[in-house]
């Protein structure tokens, strides 16, 4: 089975992640997509990062009964930190020898990819599905022939924007699934103190 891995902090998971995953499932040869929730991106500061448990729970709520071919993978929770993708891929390869794994990345990630651990090994040994994000993705930027462009729509939603909306007491509209929003409210995540009356 060919599985697409969508690695991320998912702080929080949002509609953009889900739409892209659904789109790729529909228009690629992947059988499933797994959202791999990372405890700590090696290139990002842990500032503003909600607890692993919360980010994992929200990812599970988001994919719950949504589409049986979308799954959440918690493998990095029990691995050394920060979360190096090459190490996770090797571990997944040992655990699921019958699966072929491909990576799903946004075009923004192409710029930082050369800084990733074992970059050359990564781009030589795995397929990458790249979708456009905010900016165009140009095929000449692809480091190897294992990269292919996904003609997915551009969705202008980011976790950073959602966190700032919540902290300002504004409504996140449809940017996160309802169950995820309920979870954020219930646990007071991202500085949530209720939506200001002026917005209602
Ligand atoms: N709106 C979106 N459209 C397409 N891909 C997205 C979108 N938002 C995030 N992604 C991709 O999902 C993966 C994981 O995303 P991540 O958890 O970093 O979300 P994010 O919204 O970029 O978060 P942050 O704003 O905190 O950096 C990354 O590969 C990122 O490029
Ligand atoms: O392996 C690396 O060196 C590496 C460097 C930067 C990012 N990553 C992974 O890329 C994913 C994207 O993270 P994020 O925070 O942008 O959602 C996440 O799983 C990180 O662990 C991995």
Characteristics of this structure?
binds adenosine-5'-triphosphate, Rossmann fold, 200 residues, alpha/beta, globular, single chain, six-stranded parallel β-sheet
**Order of SSEs:** EHEHEHEHHEEHH
Order of strands across the main sheet: 3-2-1-4-5-6
User: How many individual helices?
Assistant: 7
Identify low-pLDDT runs. Answer: none
The quaternary state of the protein chains shown equals single chain
Instruction: State the CATH topology.
Output: Rossmann fold
Percent helix: 25-40%
Structurally, the number of domains stands at 1
Provide the gyration radius in Å: 17 Å
Find the CATH superfamily.
HUPs
- Molecules bound to protein: adenosine-5'-triphosphate, nicotinate mononucleotide
The first-level CATH class name: Alpha Beta
Give the overall shape: globular
**Proper CATH architecture:** 3-Layer(aba) Sandwich
| Class based on secondary structure composition and strand pairing | alpha/beta
Q: Quote the beta fraction.
A: 15-25%
The pLDDT mean sits at 92
User: Sheet with the most strands?
Assistant: 6 strands, parallel
């Amino acid at each position: 089975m060919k599985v697409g891995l969508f690695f991320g902090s998912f702080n929080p998971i949002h509609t953009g992640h889900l739409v892209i995953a659904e789109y790729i499932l529909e228009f690629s040869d992947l059988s499933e997509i797994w959202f791999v929730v990372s405890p700590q991106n090696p290139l990002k500061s842990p500032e503003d990062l909600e607890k692993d448990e919360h980010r994992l729970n929200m990812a599970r709520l988001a994919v719950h009964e949504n589409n049986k071919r979308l799954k959440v993978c918690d493998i990095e929770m029990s691995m050394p930190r920060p979360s190096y993708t090459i190490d996770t891929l090797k571990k997944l390869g040992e655990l699921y020898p019958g699966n072929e794994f491909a990576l799903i990345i946004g075009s923004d990630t192409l710029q930082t990819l050369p800084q990733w651990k074992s970059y050359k090994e990564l781009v030589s040994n795995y397929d990458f599905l790249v979708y456009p994000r905010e900016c165009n993705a140009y095929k000449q930027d692809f480091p190897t022939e294992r990269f292919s462009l996904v003609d997915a729509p551009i969705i202008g939603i980011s976790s950073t924007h959602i966190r700032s909306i919540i902290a300002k007491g504004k409504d996140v509209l449809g940017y996160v699934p309802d169950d995820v929003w309920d979870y954020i409210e219930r646990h007071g995540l991202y500085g949530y103190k209720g939506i200001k009356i002026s917005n209602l």
